[in-house]
Structure formats: structure tokens, C-alpha cells
């Protein structure tokens, strides 16, 4: 449970770093490689999240197993003392509820948009014509995306304008922009609490439309004027759906027309921009991946000295109520394996003087403790630690 929350926290921090970096570099990227390069740079966020999910290299367990003794007295008796609130569980529940609500909201908006199109009829040009217009033309659908136009498409646009619009939507489909929108929908659900994600979502969708405009008009630069007038003719006044590639996008209308006036990029700056984006993705991805071990080592990954496993937070287990009432004492010897990130991966009972009496509370406590991983040759490694837990009725009494 705590590992999932730690992963969400780490992913949120790296998402924030990635969004800030892209926001700062965007003017430079547009100058070097145009809006297509700016749109491509959003791959950085996906690569950062992927890097955080990649496992660190497996290192053999340290042969030496240190021992950390612990003594428990009936200060907190199981079932009698007030238990602290399970904050980790509450936070996880709040995150899950927020993610589900956000996902349902977007899916409902998508469904409402698709119902608003009414009945669809196939057209000779490969597109589909809707009986109503909730915000068309658009590329609709994820698994089987279809280009859908409004009922007055033939009356509103000339044949040449229709061709440009259909080319635009086909470019969205060839480039897989509908899949990108689906991934964005999931990211908005998972990171619904992230303060920078709303801005990043809007900027991503704007760059998507600008890049699609550039791809559409690049082979036919003589039609820039017609393309701009077609954009002006179709201003979107309907709310957009979360997983739809809209031809009409009112918030970026001026930006799209301004992009059409830009001249073709020179080769050298274009290559420099591509190298910059690739280097940025690889470099930050590598740092994010390596940070998993670095965070666990608490900044000592570069140190030359070795260190055994340490326990940062070690609240004692609750004394079992039945054992307290019968004045039972005993010793439970645990072996706890800890990975290179400081997470307990396995807890075993090696021996117990009263088998079955203190085992369960001992294992539960060991899984909740916070560990610092062992350091070998300056790097965090997996290891194990023996923890004998002595249960006594007072601080002076030895277990029998």
C-alpha cells in the first residue's frame, strides 16, 4: 500500500519536473523544429513514467545478516489501546475514488458527444455523416476511429475545403493522435490531483492540432490561405469531447492561423531540435530511473563506505490481548528481506518460543516499518536483517 503511494508521489514529482522543462523549452523547440517538434517533445512525460516503472539491476543479497533486537512490553495491547488512523489506506482510498470519478466524468462526456451525433451514414469519401452536429468534423473512436462530419458539411464547405478537412483528420489517424488522447484521458484520471496536469493537457492538445495543421499543409504550401479561411469558417462553439480529435478548436484559432504563416525550417536548426529532444528524453529518463535507488539510499549512493540495513521507523507491535491476559511472554526471531529501494519484500519467522502467539503481530509490524537499504561499494543493494522481538510483561522481565 505504501509502495503504491510512494510510486504515485515520485511519479507526480517527475511529471512536474517534465512539465516545467517542456514549458521553458517550448519557444526554443518551436524555433528549431516548428510545432511538430514541440508536439513530439511531449513523449518526455511518457518516458519519465516508463523509466520509473523499470526495475533497478538486481544485486545479490549481502551474505552478512545483521541483527536488530527489539523488546515489547504491554504499552499498547491489541484490541484495547486506541489504534491510530490508517492514513496510508485513507489516502489510497481517496486517490482511487478521485481516479474513478474523473474517469467516469470523461467517459460520460465522451458518450454524450457520441450520442449527440445521432445516426451515422457512410459517405463515398470514406468518412461518416452524422444527423446532428455536437462539434464536427472530428476523428471519433479509439479502437476503430472514424472521421465524422456534420449534416451540413457539403453545404458549408466547398469541395476543396472538404478535401483539406478530411486530409487533416486522416493525418490525425495516421499519426495515432486518437491513441495519444486516450492515454491523456487515463493520465488525467490517475493524476487527477496534480496541479500542473490541467495546463499540460490543454497545451498538449493545442500542440497536437498545430502539428496536424503543419503536416496537412506541408505538401501543399500554396493552399495556406485557403486552409486559414477554412479554419475561420468553422469556429467551434460546442464543448469538446475528451478523446476526440476536433477539426474546429476555437481556443487555438489565432495560433493555428499564425502557424500557417511560418516558412519552412532550415535543415541545420531542424536537426539540432531533434537531437535536443532525443537527448532530453534519454537524459531525464535515465535520471528518473536512477533516482529510484538514489532516493532509497538517502543521498549516500555515491559514498565509498558500506552500510548495513537500518530501520528508520520501528514502532513496536501491539501486545496480543490473549497473551497479555494470560501473562505470556516469548521471543520471535524474524528474518526481513529488504530490496534496494528500502521496501520489505519478505518476512519470515525463523523461530518462536511460543509458536503462534506473537507471530502474526510481529510479521505485521515488520512489514510496516521503514527501512534504509544496505550500501555496498557506494550503491544501495538488497539485503536481509534478523530481528529478535522479545515480548515481556515489563522492562526488567526476561522471556521464559
Provide a descriptive summary of the structure in words:
- With 400 residues, this protein is α+β, with helices and mostly antiparallel strands.
- The protein folds into 2 domains: 2-58 and 84-288, no CATH class; 59-83 and 301-400, TolA/TonB C-terminal domain, CATH 3.30.2420.10.
- It is 50% helix and 14% strand.
- The protein has helices spanning 2-40, 43-53, 87-116, 153-156, 159-175, 177-190, 197-217, 224-233, 253-260, 267-296, 321-325, 359-368, and strands at 70-72, 120-122, 128-130, 138-140, 146-149, 245-246, 310-313, 330-338, 344-352, 370-372, 374-376, 379-381, 383-391.
- It has a 5-stranded mixed beta sheet. Strands 1-13-8-9 form a 4-stranded mixed beta sheet, with helices on one face. A two-stranded antiparallel ribbon has the order 7-10.
- A hairpin with a 2-residue loop joins strand 11 (374-376) and strand 12 (379-381).
- Helix 1 (2-40) runs parallel beside helix 7 (197-217), helix 1 (2-40) packs antiparallel against helix 10 (267-296) and helix 3 packs antiparallel against helix 6.
- It is elongated, with a radius of gyration of 30 Å.
- The two termini are 36 Å apart.
- The relative contact order is 0.16.
The best one-word shape is elongated
How far apart the termini lie comes to 36 Å
Total count of strands = 13
How much helix, percentage-wise, in residues?
A: 40-55%
Helix-strand pattern, N to C? Answer: HHEHEEEEHHHHHEHHEHEEHEEEE
Amino acid at each position: 500500500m505504501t509502495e503504491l503511494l510512494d510510486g504515485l508521489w515520485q511519479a507526480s514529482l517527475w511529471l512536474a519536473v517534465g512539465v516545467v522543462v517542456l514549458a521553458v523549452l517550448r519557444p526554443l523547440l518551436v524555433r528549431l523544429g516548428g510545432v511538430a517538434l514541440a508536439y513530439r517533445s511531449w513523449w518526455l512525460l511518457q518516458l519519465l513514467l516508463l523509466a520509473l516503472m523499470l526495475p533497478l539491476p538486481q544485486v545479490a543479497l549481502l551474505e552478512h545478516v545483521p541483527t536488530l533486537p527489539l523488546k515489547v512490553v504491554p504499552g499498547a495491547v491489541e484490541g484495547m489501546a486506541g489504534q491510530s488512523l490508517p492514513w496510508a489506506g485513507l489516502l489510497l482510498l481517496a486517490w482511487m475514488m478521485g481516479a474513478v470519478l474523473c474517469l467516469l466524468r470523461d467517459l460520460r462526456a465522451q458518450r454524450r458527444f457520441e450520442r449527440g451525433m445521432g445516426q451515422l451514414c457512410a459517405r463515398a469519401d470514406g468518412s461518416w455523416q452524422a444527423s446532428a452536429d455536437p462539434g464536427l468534423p472530428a476523428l471519433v473512436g479509439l479502437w476503430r476511429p472514424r472521421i465524422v462530419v456534420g449534416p451540413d458539411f457539403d453545404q458549408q464547405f466547398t469541395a476543396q475545403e472538404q478535401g483539406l478537412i478530411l486530409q487533416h483528420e486522416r493525418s490525425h489517424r495516421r499519426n495515432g493522435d486518437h491513441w495519444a488522447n486516450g492515454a491523456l484521458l487515463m493520465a488525467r484520471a490517475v493524476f487527477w490531483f496534480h496541479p500542473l496536469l490541467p495546463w499540460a493537457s490543454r497545451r498538449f492538445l493545442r500542440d497536437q492540432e498545430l502539428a496536424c495543421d503543419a503536416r496537412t499543409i506541408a505538401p501543399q504550401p500554396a493552399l495556406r490561405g485557403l486552409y486559414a479561411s477554412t479554419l475561420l469558417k468553422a469556429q467551434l462553439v460546442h464543448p469538446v469531447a475528451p478523446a476526440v480529435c476536433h477539426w474546429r478548436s476555437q481556443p487555438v484559432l489565432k495560433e493555428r492561423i499564425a502557424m500557417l504563416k511560418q516558412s519552412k525550417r532550415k535543415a541545420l536548426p531542424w536537426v539540432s531540435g531533434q537531437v535536443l529532444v532525443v537527448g532530453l528524453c534519454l537524459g531525464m529518463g535515465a535520471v528518473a530511473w536512477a533516482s529510484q535507488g538514489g532516493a532509497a539510499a538517502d543521498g549516500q549512493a555515491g559514498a565509498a563506505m558500506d552500510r548495513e540495513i537500518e530501520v528508520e521507523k520501528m514502532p513496536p507491535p501491539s501486545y496480543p490481548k490473549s497473551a497479555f491476559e494470560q501473562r505470556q511472554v516469548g521471543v520471535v526471531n524474524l528474518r526481513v528481506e529488504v530490496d534496494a529501494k528500502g521496501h520489505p519484500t519478505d518476512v519470515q519467522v525463523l523461530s518462536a518460543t511460543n509458536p503462534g502467539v506473537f507471530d502474526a503481530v510481529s510479521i505485521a509490524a515488520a512489514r510496516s516499518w521503514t527501512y534504509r537499504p544496505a550500501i555496498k561499494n557506494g550503491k544501495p543493494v538488497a539485503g536481509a536483517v534478523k530481528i529478535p522481538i522479545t515480548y515481556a510483561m515489563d522492562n526488567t522481565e526476561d522471556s521464559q
